[in-house]
Design a protein that fits this description.
The complex is a heterodimer of chains A (442) and B (470). Chain A has helices at residues 10-15, 25-34, 42-46, 53-62, 65-75, 79-85, 92-95, 108-122, 145-156, 173-176, 185-197, 211-220, 249-257, 275-286, 307-316, 411-414, 419-441; strands spanning 137-141, 160-165, 201-204, 223-226, 267-271, 291-295, 319-321, 324-331, 337-347, 350-353, 359-363, 365-368, 387-388, 391-392, 406-408. Chain A has 442 residues and is an alpha/beta fold. Chain B folds into two domains: 10-326, TIM Barrel; 330-371 and 407-465, Alpha-Beta Plaits. Chain B is built from 15 helices and 18 strands. In chain B, strand 1 and strand 2 form a beta hairpin. In chain B, helix 1 (34-43) runs parallel beside helix 2 and helix 8 (269-277) packs across helix 10. The chains are: A alpha/beta (442), B alpha/beta (470).
């Protein structure tokens, strides 16, 4: 099948030029040759999908680029997007023994991208088995990384997998939520096209948000996998938050990535200090906002964002307002937003306002970025599934929930981690489903 | 002690050849013309062996190919170029000019002519008239010229080599060096013949017959000459161990040993020092100059000088041949010498290359079974590499996203590397083969430590005399 696509947008490309340009062919070989080829390599162990890193790197060094990509895809079907979005500093590259050798770690992400880009350019499709589990049908709810990894793994083993997605395009946050200078929506979609060629079926615009809808799926499919991610972004909880001119971070990111938001001006205030807040603040700068403030109620050392993301935001010209809390937002006579804020300090574990420290920031856009809310609507309807703190309780190794026909992985289980964690979880769930099905039909 | 500058000078090599240092350019493209040689002397080269002079040839293109290794260029180099393609009189006229302008540098005429007494007498006279300090008889060129009965065609037949050397000696007033080909089962056979013929010195080795590689798209070996290839002569860093072995063979053989100009993969002062330690009086360089230019001689001279100063050597002769008596036949080695590998836990980076090398390439005595805390009794888990890898792949890893998770992930304990990644050597099983210390990427992390043994040294030859043939 062919999935929907987005047109190539040269203006978007120019505004969001790639953070890390790809390696040229010879540079890749030289870099690949730096790899020591560790045994039981710590990079592989650190990767949630356990990509055989020295294995794919040595294949680049010998000129076996196709074999290199296949090695990556064996472990991680989203090898191309992971090579762009993974926080490798705390994963494979962070684990590289070169750190203890007084050298730069191997540029694993760029090498992986080198192999994957060549593979996707060739238009090849990983081989799938047609025999292992004939007739096994699995519905994967949600079109994000967890579902794609689960569906692709099932297909590889000969099962039928159908992704049910409520939006118009597949990919979840990979398509709608990753900063464009890391992963272009078009790149995410071409990766998903490959998954489609493997035999994964897609149903778009289908929301599964009621017990009835779920029952229908249960009738059609043997197993249901939940890769539904988290809920909508949380509101800050201040008066006036629903006025025009307030747009949460994920809305902002998906709007510009799909061409629906092309330009910004004036002052933008982002509230929050996680990786998504940084992505939104950087995006605001690149879309033309002259001044971008990142407002955070705690200090610099408490931010949730990775260090390299924070450094990047500083380079993009984002300004930080520490220990300041929004109080209310309203519009002035000219339609501009007036955000009232107050300085806070930590007193006996609680953040208390500092007297006489209020000031009002006039801005053109207010972007709440204080995390996604837990899922509520659907999962409360699930029979036999335990839900704790808004997360589905599922076994880490198998993704199995309290209901033997329900499996789950990704953000809806782990509370919000990385793409690679979702891929790993989805893959483990697929293997567990296959094993369970084998036992059932044996 | 006054800081005496070591003297790199070479005096009366092979009887009469002197040069300001032992670094000579080998007979090859870098010594093609007088202009080139003068630039080389300006750069600091002590001598030059002129690109072989003889009846001018027609060359083909391309002429060179190389073996790259893990991203580095020209680990080995190969050529199918013949001798000088310029008339004899042009070469000799330029030689006279070079000698006039650079009287202190050694200029050696490399010669190759048809195998007649007259031809050799004539070229010897003309070269010496041009001012050559010595003659190098090219009995080594392995390609092209050998098909015409010259070069290695002479060098592979001891009788021919002896005969032509004798012809040259009838006429020569300057020292005669014979350049030996390695493309023969025992290089000493020709070295002995040259010595019997009256040679004053030897140059070794010439290039080694080679096919460097094949283009996997066209199936044509390199270098490609209009779709065909011919075997060439191999040189560069890759051939140095072969050259060192042959130099040692010659210099340890009383019937072969003569003043020797060492050749084969020399590109640094370290390489030069090794050839001199095995008895070479001068060294010749080509590939490294073709790669980087004449300028490499600066570090060769400085580096050798600094090393000599550090070791207390005042002249080249002070250390020439010092390693010769350290090479012996296997039967004279001490069977009771015991060493074992030791891993420095503070230096180990946890690559585990020693572990897999020992398991798959040696004696299965480096293990990954270190444990923290006290151990009760004997530990011998001996998990196989495959089991170890499978366990890693089956483990569940999660991206550390919170500050606390990230801090925990970065913790390693008392060593820079997590303890479970630092291999352990089972010293009772270790045979002291060296492999782990060779594959370890970290300098001085794995050292081979001598173990005290209660047994007296004993060689295989000695053991044989006691009737024990184990």
């Amino acid at each position: 099948m062919s999935t929907a696509t987005l047109p190539d947008d040269s203006e978007l490309r120019a505004r969001f030029s790639e953070l890390k340009p790809p390696l040229g062919g010879q540079a890749a070989v030289i870099e690949a040759n730096r790899c020591l080829n560790c045994f039981d390599a710590p990079c592989t162990a650190a990767c949630p999908t356990h990509i055989d890193v020295p294995g794919f790197i040595k294949r680049i060094a010998t000129g076996n680029l196709r074999g290199s990509a296949q090695r990556i895809l064996d472990a991680n079907i989203l090898g191309a997007s992971c090579s762009r979005v993974c926080p490798v500093d705390v994963l494979c590259e962070g684990a590289c023994v070169m750190h203890r050798y007084n050298r730069e770690p191997i540029q694993i992400a760029l090498l992986q991208r080198h192999a994957m880009d060549a593979y996707h350019e060739s238009g090849e499709t990983p081989t799938v088995k047609n025999v292992a589990a004939p007739g096994l049908r699995v519905a994967c709810i949600g079109g994000g990384p967890a579902s794609m990894a689960c569906a692709a793994e099932l297909c590889r083993h000969g099962a039928k997998a159908t992704i049910v997605e409520k939006r118009a395009l597949p990919g979840g946050l990979n398509t709608y939520g990753v900063a464009e200078y890391k992963l272009r929506a078009t790149e995410s979609l071409s990766e998903i096209e490959m998954i489609g060629r493997m035999g994964v079926e897609f149903r778009f615009g289908v929301g599964v948000d009621s017990a009835a809808a779920l029952e229908k799926l249960e009738k059609e499919f043997d197993y249901v996998f939940f890769g539904v991610g988290l809920g909508a972004m949380q509101q800050i909880g201040i008066p006036g938050e629903d006025v025009d001119g307030v747009m949460n971070a994920l809305e902002l990111i998906s709007a510009y990535k799909t061409g629906n938001l092309r330009e910004l001006h004036g002052v933008v205030v982002v509230v929050g200090a996680g990786n998504t807040a940084i992505d939104a603040a950087n995006a605001a700068r690149r879309l033309g906002a002259e001044t971008v403030y990142l407002l955070y109620r705690r200090g610099e050392s408490d931010i949730g964002a990775f260090d390299f993301e924070y450094e990047h935001a500083k380079q993009e010209g984002v300004q930080f307002l520490w220990r300041r809390r929004p109080l209310a937002v309203r519009k002035d006579a000219h339609g501009r937003l007036l955000l009232e804020t107050v300085q806070v300090r930590l007193i006996e574990g609680a953040l208390e306002p500092v007297p006489d420290s209020q000031f009002t920031i006039a801005c053109d856009l207010l972007v709440p970025a204080i995390g996604q809310s837990p899922l509520t609507a659907l999962i409360e309807e699930l029979h036999g599934v335990e839900v704790r703190d808004g997360r589905i309780v599922a076994d880490l190794a198998t993704g199995r929930t309290g209901n033997p026909r329900y499996y789950a992985a990704g953000d809806c289980v782990n509370g919000g981690r990385e793409v690679v964690d979702a891929v790993a979880g989805g893959k483990r769930a697929a293997l567990a489903i296959l094993k369970a099905a084998e036992a059932r039909y044996a | 002690m006054p800081d005496q500058k070591p003297n790199l000078g070479v005096t009366n090599f092979a009887g009469k050849i002197s040069s300001p240092n032992p670094f000579w350019l080998a007979s090859a493209p870098p010594t093609n013309t007088g202009e080139m040689i003068m630039r080389a002397f300006d750069a600091g080269w002590g001598g030059a062996v002129w690109k072989t002079i003889g009846e001018p040839v027609t060359n083909v293109s391309s002429r060179y190919s190389s073996v790259d290794w893990e991203g580095r260029r020209m680990m080995g180099f190969n050529n199918i170029e013949l001798i000088s393609d310029r008339p004899v009189e042009v070469n000799l006229r330029e030689m006279a000019e070079v000698k006039r302008r650079y009287p202190k540098n050694a200029v050696i005429a490399s010669l190759m002519v048809a195998s007649t007494r007259e031809a050799w007498h004539e070229i010897v006279s003309r070269s010496e008239d041009a001012g050559a300090d010595g003659l190098e008889l090219n009995f080594g060129c392995p390609h092209g010229m050998s098909e015409r009965g010259m070069g290695s065609a002479v060098g592979q037949v001891p009788e021919y080599a002896e005969m032509i050397t004798a012809w040259v000696k009838e006429k020569a007033r300057t020292p005669v060096l014979v350049k030996l080909t390695p493309n023969i089962s025992d290089i000493r056979a020709v070295a002995r013949a040259a010595k019997r013929g009256g040679a004053d010195g030897l140059s070794a080795i010439n290039t080694i017959n080679s096919i460097t590689g094949i283009d996997l798209d066209t199936f044509i070996p390199r270098p490609n000459v209009d779709g065909k290839n011919s075997h060439g002569g191999y040189c560069g860093p890759a051939v140095r161990p072969i050259a060192l072995n042959m130099v040692q063979q010659i210099m340890s053989d009383a019937e072969s040993a003569l003043p020797l100009s060492g050749i084969g993969g020399i590109g640094t002062w370290r390489d030069a020092a090794e050839f001199i330690l095995l008895g070479s009086g001068t060294v010749q360089v080509c590939t490294a100059v073709m790669h980087y230019g004449y300028r490499i001689v600066e570090d060769m001279a400085e580096g050798l000088e600094n090393w000599m100063r550090e070791k207390g050597f005042e002249t080249i002769e002070d250390f020439r041949g010092l390693s010769l008596n350290r090479v012996t036949e296997w039967k004279h080695l001490n069977l009771n010498y015991k060493i074992v590998a030791r891993i420095d836990e503070q230096k180990c980076i946890g690559c585990e290359l020693c572990h897999i090398a020992c398991w798959d390439g040696a004696h299965q005595c480096i293990h990954l079974d270190r444990v923290s805390g006290p151990v009760d009794g004997h530990v011998e888990l001996h998990e196989t590499p495959a089991a170890r890898e499978a366990a890693s792949r089956a483990s569940i890893a999660v991206t550390p996203v919170t500050r606390r998770e990230r801090a925990e992930a970065a913790e390693t304990g008392p060593y820079p590397t997590p303890l479970e990644r630092i291999p352990r050597v089972d010293e009772t099983e270790c045979v002291g083969c060296n492999l782990c210390s060779l594959v370890c990427p970290v300098e001085d992390c794995i050292t081979m430590v001598r173990m005290d043994v209660d047994v007296a040294p004993e060689t295989w030859e000695e053991r044989g005399k006691t009737g024990n043939r184990e």
